[in-house]
Amino acid sequence: MEKLSCDEGDLWDSGVVISNQSSQIEYSGTPLRSRQRCFWKLMTWDDNGYLSSWSEPASWTMGLLKSDDWSGQWISMQQTSLQERKTEFGSDGKEEADHFFECRNSPLLRKSFSIGGTVKTAQLSICGLGFHELFLNGQKVGDHVLDPALSSYHRNAHYVTHEIGPLLVAGENVLGVQLANGIYNQGHPDAWEFHNAPWKAFPQMLLQLDIEFEDGRQERVVSDTSWKVSKGPILWDQLRMGVLYDARREIANWNEPGYDDSAWESAIEREGIEGRLSSQMSEPIKIMDTLKPISISESEASYEIDFGQNIAGWVQLALTGPRGTEITIKHGDHDLVYADPLQTSTYIMKGEGKEVWEPRFSFYGFRKIKVSGLASPPTHDTFTAKVTHTAFDQRGGFSSSNEILNALVERTRWSYIGNFVGIPTDCPHREKNGWTGDAQVAAEIGLLYYGTEAAYTRWIQDVAATKREDGKLPCIVPTGTWGYDTLDGPAWEIAYLMIPWHLYEYRGDKRILETHYQGFKHWLDWYRYHPSANQGQIIHYGIGDWVPIEQETPIEVTSTAYYFAATKRLAAIAKRLGKQNDQEEYENLSEEIKQAFVKAFFDSDTGRISNGSQTAMSCALYHGLLTAEQSSTVANVLVNSIRESDHRLNCGFLGSKYLLRALCDYGYADDAFKLVTNDHAPGWASMIASGNTTLWESFKSEESDNHIFLGDVVAWFISYLAGIRHDPKRPGFQPFIISPEIVDGLDAASGYHISPYGRIESSWKRTNKQIALNVTVPFNSQARIELPANQEATILQQDEQTTGDSSRLQFLGFEEGKAVYLASSGTFKFEATLPSRKQTASLA
Asked: By its UniProt entry, which PANTHER family does this protein fall under (predicted)?
């Protein structure tokens, strides 16, 4: 810090760098060591040579980089069984068979230690599996919950780090840890085999506290057999089933100085984990919001409480009652589906005045709860719902003059955050599983709307860790042992390749492509060479277009298309990584697949793909599987069939991603908009009309009330209606495209996205035949702006920085009915006359 104050960098000094790159600049200084604290600052120059002042100093601290950096032992208590509970349930969340199994107590661990002197810094790192909560001197450390995030523990486990210096006191200090089972030690049988997971073990932890004093002394506290352990008030906990908490078993002051732990047992050493232990390099899970009931109704000795919003989280109780009163809370959707046997928490009262309690180590997907066992009628103050999800920042938004679109944005937002509690999931109630297909379809809305890159990067590491020796991936990650040969396929497993590709497109960081490149090839080889799946470059394997409205699409169509997409992307990745031989190999392979696809599925007489479903037709267009002439024919046939059906949606969740984009890309944006806003048939608008507050799993509302995979429509809003798109030739929005679709029936739309270079904005409003477009371009970026017009727009406004500087806005000419501009950083306002619209498809 002293050298930094003298404008000297002893670890790294980049010097003056003449570049417009202000993101993805890798550290290239002296190698750093574990626990090293580093300080940094910077200054910038603009294109006129003006120099900024130095930024305020900031710092970061390195984690524990090697296994040898850990001094402690993995510890726990003797395995115990306090409760038996029955139920085996299937993938639909319904009971299938009775089984008795052991549910283990969640142990408490404590360590007393004394310090003297003034603390400069104190870094504590802990991995407590399956979940843990950390306390110091009676206070919970940090605001994380459900630490660490789920992973395949035999391959990857994560530790978290806290700075606890301000919480330490001179004299005695006490560390307390409560451990829980999670899926690390699942007891109940389920369809996904977590009860037989290869990592399964009793909860255990590894902890290290490194203290540095102002006088230069250093001390270390670690987990070892000197810690004391005891059973606690959580009698059992299971991620899907819930929690049983007996307040009569609470141990007052157990995690505070002065407590007599002489009756506690000594901790025992455990073997620890087989896999890699690394820092949890993503945002933690936190309680992000709270809700109060909108209604309470009584029915058959129980109460139904409606919070008005479907969420992921749990409910805090505040109530009084006699000792031993057993309160049961069942959580579910609007009709309390998936509330039993799943998602049930139980609290046994201690009978000591007002008791405030909330479950830990499990979360629930719910709008309503059903509560039984209350000693007296509840009030609205009895219940508080805690909204819980990974705490990433919001990075995007969309609004418009159409209330259906605005409502879809809000419902998608709730579904997205409710399905990202540590990992991307399918639903927060029935399964809580990391379904890869759901994740890959929803990834673009996640990257446009939230700062999810760290969370996705961490999850993709876990996806890679689940790859079998033959290259095959499962359909859920993490998984016990299930999903390698059931309900999987290219459309799901391609998440391993597509999410890193999207991270590269949206954030510009190619390191994730470098890290996983060999893994991508290994995975693709399974589909390339596996005879039971690949027959003549046609893939006869997979799930297909899940939950279609009516017309199904042959699995071979979507599976082969994703096989092609993976091969095409791998060729593009090879090009960016400078692997020319691989590039040529995968380009040739993709051409083989393309020809096989056309031969197998394209009917030149009818212009249809396969059975002519909306999914099949748009799939071929979206993935680029056709020639230009074939594409034009297929697009024309597709839009005619949509118009003949009065713009009724008829696809599943894969088609929901292709269809709107394909229509816009071939000039039929008005038809795409009508599909979204048609409220007379199953579709997005019917979800809004139903009053549901999140997105359904099925357009027909036959399944879950909270799934995310139909939420890609909001990515379409931002990318097409607001027109904010990354440049396919260059990643990271350094150059980007503004090309809004001015559709009939929509008078205004606006969107924003915070790119690696800053905030991008696009908003337009139509008045009669006039269109006004506002665009903001961040520093070090350029935007290609495409405005529907057949004459140059009037430039009404430029901000102070760009006014009078013609070099920041250039008119490039007219292309396909659009006036095209190139804009450097600044804010611009255009006004133009819309060209006449033409009908480009005719009814057959």
From this structure: ALPHA-RHAMNOSIDASE (EUROFUNG), ALPHA-RHAMNOSIDASE (EUROFUNG)-RELATED
Q: Which two tokens stand for residue 579?
A: 């692997």
> At 20, is the secondary structure helix, strand, or coil?
coil
The 3-class secondary structure across 278-335, one letter per residue, is EECCCCCEEEEEEECCCEEEEECCEEEEEEEEEEEEEEEEEECCCCCCEEEEEEECCC
634-669: pLDDT as tens digits: 999 999 999 999 999 999 999 999 999 999 999 999
CA dist 671 and 675 (Å) reads: 6
Angle between helices 495-507 and 511-529 (to 10 degrees): 150
The angle at the Cα of 807, spanning 805 to 812, to the nearest 5 degrees, equals: 130
The per-residue b/e assignment along 520-529, b for 16 or more CB within 10 angstroms, e otherwise, is bbbbbebbbe
HSE-up of residue 225 (Cα within 13 Å, Cβ side): 4
Report the pLDDT value the prediction gives residue 837, as an integer from 0 to 100.
66
**For residues 78 and 210, which has the higher predicted lDDT (pLDDT)?**
210
Q: How far apart are CA 739 and CA 384, in angstroms?
A: 44
Q: What is the DSSP letter of 597?
A: H
User: Which residue type sits at 546?
Assistant: W
Q: Taking all residues of the chain, what is their mean pLDDT, rounded to a whole number?
A: 93
How many CB atoms sit inside 10 A of residue 127's CB? 26
Single out the residue of 349, 134, 356 nearest to residue 233, CA to CA.
349
With both helix axes pointing from N to C terminus, report the angle between 495-507 and 453-465 in degrees, rounded to the nearest 10.
150
- For 223-243, how does the pLDDT look when each residue is reduced to its tens digit (9 = 90+)? 999 999 999 999 999 999 999
The pTM of this model reads 0.95
How confident is the model over 563-599, as pLDDT tens digits?
Answer: 999 999 999 999 999 999 999 999 999 999 999 999 9
- For residue 335, the model assigns a pLDDT of 77
SS3 495: helix
* pLDDT of amino acid 3: 81
Question: Alpha-carbon distance 668 to 747, whole Å?
Answer: 17
pLDDT tens for each residue of 713-746: 999 999 999 999 999 999 999 999 999 999 999 9
Q: What angle do CA 310, 312, 316 make, to 5 degrees?
A: 95
Longest dimension (CA), the chain: 87
CB-CB contact of 732 with 755 (8 Å) = yes
Contacts of 678 (CB under 8 A, 6+ apart): 646, 647, 648, 649, 685
Instruction: Cite the beta strand spans of 67-116 per DSSP E.
Output: 75-76, 83-89, 95-103, 108-115
Question: pLDDT per residue over 757-804, tens digit each?
Answer: 999 999 999 999 999 999 999 999 999 999 999 888 888 777 655 444
479-525 per-position pLDDT tens digit: 999 999 989 999 999 999 999 999 999 999 999 999 999 999 999 99
pLDDT of 808 > 70? The answer is yes
Q: Is the peptide bond before 57 cis (omega within 30 degrees of 0)?
A: no
What structural domains does the chain harbor? 1-62 (2.60.40.10), 72-241+248-280 (2.60.120.260), 288-390 (2.60.120.260), 396-721 (1.50.10.10), 736-833 (2.60.420.10)
Q: Could you give the CA distance from residue 796 to residue 802 in angstroms, rounded to a whole number?
A: 12
Residues in the chain: 844
708 contact partners, CB below 8 Å, separation of at least 6: 412, 415, 416, 418, 419, 424, 426, 438, 442, 695
CA-to-CA separations, 594 to 68, 417, 512, 571, in angstroms, rounded: 51, 37, 27, 14
Q: What are phi and psi of 529, to 5 degrees?
A: -120, 0
Strands 344-348 and 242-246: parallel
Lookup: tokens for 700: 């027909």
Phi, then psi, of 53 in degrees rounded to 5: -80, 165
Structure tokens at 230: 């005891």
Q: How far apart are CA 252 and CA 315, in angstroms?
A: 23
